[in-house]
Amino acid sequence: MKFCVLAKISKRSISFWYQSDRNAYAPLSITESNEVPLYFYVNGNDFIFGTAARDRFNRHDPNAYGNYFEIIKDPGKHFSIYGNKKPVKQLFYYGVEQYLSHFLNTVLYKTDSIESYRQHFPLRFLFDTDIEDQEKSLIEHLFKEAGYFNLDRIDFNKALFGVLTQKAVLPKGKSVLWLSSVDDVLYLKLYKDVLAEAIGSFKLEGQGADPRVKILADMIVEYIIVQNSYLSIDKDAEIAALLPFCVRVLENISPIIKGDAELIDGNKYWFKVNERNLNDRLQYYSNDGMIYSAIDDLLKSAGLIAQEVIILLGTEEISTSYFSGKLLRKYPYVLAVKAADAGDAMKAVFAEIASSNYTVKSKPPVAAPVLAAPAVTPPVVTASPPVLARPALPTPKTPPPLPPKREQPVSQPQVNIPKLPEPKPAIPTKVNAVKLPPLPPKK
User: Fold this and answer.
1) Which of 12, 59, 129, 313, by CA, is between 20 and 30 Å from 330?
2) What CATH number was assigned to the domain covering residues 3-154?
């Protein structure tokens, strides 16, 4: 059976996709969405990952954890589960494995526990732009410690550039400046060409959205605060979290913009904003120069000019006509990545994974060979292979009584050959003696 699970990780959330056999890739969801906020709740043997844990965290439950990539910086911070004390960094591992177990049970219909699949389970990580290199290494190390050895990173940009090149959207030989945003931070990454590694990068705080999107988010938060004076919230964090919502609102704008906006605490609040007030504020926005300077500095450091570079807008917060129009005033080639292109890039990612050898066999009746090291398992599956190599003689259990049979040594002159395979049922015993990989955290 062939299958794979892909996890896209950002500092705020993690999203899951999977592919099995020749089926198209699909979202992996336990409840209503395959995107899970990075919150955890642990109390005794109870472990909750996602929205319910976020609710407890916002109620200041001492057993709930948020801000994962901040709290792991404290090596002395721990949690307890199943009576064992664990470093807080392992919260992420427990949360992800909950989804992997769900995949085995509900997609593959396996009744086996995840323990017997860890060693060969095809797990791929797609790290979002806001995850730093040391954080990527920490995540990978967590799973290797737990016995996951079939791991790899996915380079989504490489797959996307390949798709856009095939569609003749990106001409070969052109340099590419990739712009993306996460939580109102604008990330810039420069590639010499579509086949090369990045040669420069930069990030701008507070510039990760079309100005209209950010202004609308600001106005929504202001309205909610005025109408709900009892709320104590981090305004900047709420604005950053509302950016994707505001992108969708502006796609069908009306003179009076109203609806329900969901804040970080998971609760929805009604708002009403006048479009005319939004446009009035937009007149006073004057931060375009910051983005121009960042782009110019990157191109200059690489010895490139604007005519040699295509600017790609990779996330919905900046893939708007207003934002691209601002850039087109100064740079000749600006393109927004379409949803269909991003979908085709994901297909290409899974196609590449499928082309590699990630076949995973179902759990055999005997557990020991499954846990054995990969180099030893293939040649010794059961105790019978030596018998299969035996020449086609009459079986020793029913020796022929007729004398003429004993006088025909033409095909096999030595009758003592059958003695060779029989003394070695001890071969499987050697398999059990193989040193097992490090034990994963107990559950």
Assistant:
1) 129
2) 3.30.420.40
